Amino acid sequence: MRVTTRPIEGQKPGTSGLRKKTKVFMSKGYLKNFIQSIFDATGGAEGKTYVLGGDGRYFNVEAAQTILKMAAANGAKRVIVGQGALLSTPAASHLIRRNGADGGIILSASHNPGGPDADFGVKFNGPNGGPASEAVTEAIFARSGEIDAYCIADERDIDLSKIGMQHIGCMEVFIIDPVADYARLMESLFDFPKIRAMFAGGFRMRFDAMCAVTGPYAKEILEGRLGAAPGTVVHAEPLPDFGGMHPDPNPTWAHELMDEMFGADAPDFGAASDGDGDRNMVVGQGIYVSPSDSLAVLAANAHLAPGYRAGLKGVARSMPTSCAADRVAEALGIGAYETPTGWKFFGNLLDAGRATLCGEESFGTGSDHVREKDGLWAVLLWLNILAERKESVGEILKAHWRKFGRNYYSRHDYEALPVEVANEVMDGLRARLPGLPGTDLAGRTISSADDFAYADPVDGSTSERQGLRVVFGDGSRIVLRLSGTGTEGATLRLYLERYAAGPDGLDQEVQAALAPMIRAAEELAGIRAVTGREGPDVVT
Ligand code: G6P
Ligand code: ZN
């Protein structure tokens, strides 16, 4: 059935898909226009195979039913769907690759809260399993601005609870267990017997699934296959509103886990994941591991896991992520890459075999096993390293700093600012950049200052205006950029980094260690002065 429609403004995918208020997605034609734009902008759905699933948030199932009917009416050959329309983002990426699918549609607004008054999102991934490239998302947006009709089959809903094959017209709908293939992939990468032996020896862990999609994955893998004590995984059932939780694994939102890990009788290891399972936070007994440090430690120790025994080809990090991983890459004699924020920028490096491990300060870590960041993968790699080294998280982290020095690091977020105000801060600092190199600030000399531009070494494409960075001679940095994932006003992110070579000064409190950089940032950008805010809303 062909239904006429009119373009809807603002269907521009951000850092990670199109993310809007749930009610916007539920409004007339909104989802359908966008899905048709995806099909149209990627050469049509005729004869193609897709993977479909989401993080279980409110409207997940209804949206999946609509997309299935649209795929059928657009001539798709087959759609592989996670049972209950559930799939974590990394599991979807794996399924696209394993089945040689033409792409995948993932229903998620990642770590944003879910529910009728919260957020919903749609991400489109390409045949390599990774987020669509800028060129593709631009084409989808362009198409959304001229669309005049969409196609949808006038058929009954599919029974999404039933594993196996069903049909809409001649399109096959193949419903699969969302966990099975992913769990097998993890077993191929990590030493499950060794980790199982560690749990059997009394190792205790807490995994907070935050009422989101990793619950079933973590239960099956950690408790089921690795023998972690029953109850190790908490908030394990995916709920449409994530039980009112904000499923973002950082010290602010995963405070229950933080309290437990810093309390009396803390388990040996703690971890949390986000709405769609691609993010992770890792905590030791009384010690928090920043995502930037986590990437560096994983890079330095990955060879301890069977899947990475041959060594790494290179390590990539997003520009605002601390430079800790670069020092590991240098020591290993492998490539270090600095990309703009957004996992899609790692895709070419992974596809071309230049990088094996990637990571971002925004709680994302992953490798070339899929083309998304992967929360549980990071947790399992940590577990494998802990099982091999037989040291605590704290011991491993401290030994790492002694060897490589420590990149003190923190991100300060100023949320829901009026867009003009956020732009004023950015424009103010951008204008000052050319005059900064050679000047002194915070007792250091600024060695370079620019608006980060990236030239992809594989396909030569360029991305400009990816964040303002001020770099000091001692390796310390101040970075300022606007978030690309917010749904309300603008969010300004200030990333602060100070390098301490050691052996002294490796054990300071992070915010205290960064105090000179915090003052320098205010002097440079005047965030508080311009926004009138007294301080950041979230500190990670
Ligand atoms: C999503 C992307 C990440 C990115 C993050 C940053 O999670 O998948 O790759 O790092 O957004 O978001 P921001 O709000 O800083 O643009
Ligand atoms: Zn996510």
Automatic annotation (TrEMBL):
<feature type="domain" description="Alpha-D-phosphohexomutase alpha/beta/alpha">
    <location>
        <begin position="11"/>
        <end position="147"/>
    </location>
</feature>
<dbReference type="Pfam" id="PF02878">
    <property type="entry name" value="PGM_PMM_I"/>
</dbReference>
<dbReference type="InterPro" id="IPR005845">
    <property type="entry name" value="A-D-PHexomutase_a/b/a-II"/>
</dbReference>
<feature type="domain" description="Alpha-D-phosphohexomutase alpha/beta/alpha">
    <location>
        <begin position="182"/>
        <end position="283"/>
    </location>
</feature>
<dbReference type="InterPro" id="IPR016066">
    <property type="entry name" value="A-D-PHexomutase_CS"/>
</dbReference>
<dbReference type="InterPro" id="IPR005844">
    <property type="entry name" value="A-D-PHexomutase_a/b/a-I"/>
</dbReference>
<keyword id="KW-0597">Phosphoprotein</keyword>
<dbReference type="Pfam" id="PF02880">
    <property type="entry name" value="PGM_PMM_III"/>
</dbReference>
<dbReference type="InterPro" id="IPR045244">
    <property type="entry name" value="PGM"/>
</dbReference>
<dbReference type="Pfam" id="PF24947">
    <property type="entry name" value="PGM1_C_vert_fung"/>
</dbReference>
<dbReference type="InterPro" id="IPR036900">
    <property type="entry name" value="A-D-PHexomutase_C_sf"/>
</dbReference>
<keyword id="KW-0460">Magnesium</keyword>
<dbReference type="GO" id="GO:0004614">
    <property type="term" value="F:phosphoglucomutase activity"/>
</dbReference>
<keyword id="KW-0479">Metal-binding</keyword>
<dbReference type="InterPro" id="IPR005846">
    <property type="entry name" value="A-D-PHexomutase_a/b/a-III"/>
</dbReference>
<comment type="similarity">
    <text>Belongs to the phosphohexose mutase family.</text>
</comment>
<protein>
    <recommendedName>
        <fullName>phosphoglucomutase (alpha-D-glucose-1,6-bisphosphate-dependent)</fullName>
        <ecNumber>5.4.2.2</ecNumber>
    </recommendedName>
</protein>
<dbReference type="InterPro" id="IPR005841">
    <property type="entry name" value="Alpha-D-phosphohexomutase_SF"/>
</dbReference>
<dbReference type="InterPro" id="IPR016055">
    <property type="entry name" value="A-D-PHexomutase_a/b/a-I/II/III"/>
</dbReference>
<keyword id="KW-0413">Isomerase</keyword>
<feature type="domain" description="Alpha-D-phosphohexomutase alpha/beta/alpha">
    <location>
        <begin position="292"/>
        <end position="404"/>
    </location>
</feature>
<dbReference type="Pfam" id="PF02879">
    <property type="entry name" value="PGM_PMM_II"/>
</dbReference>
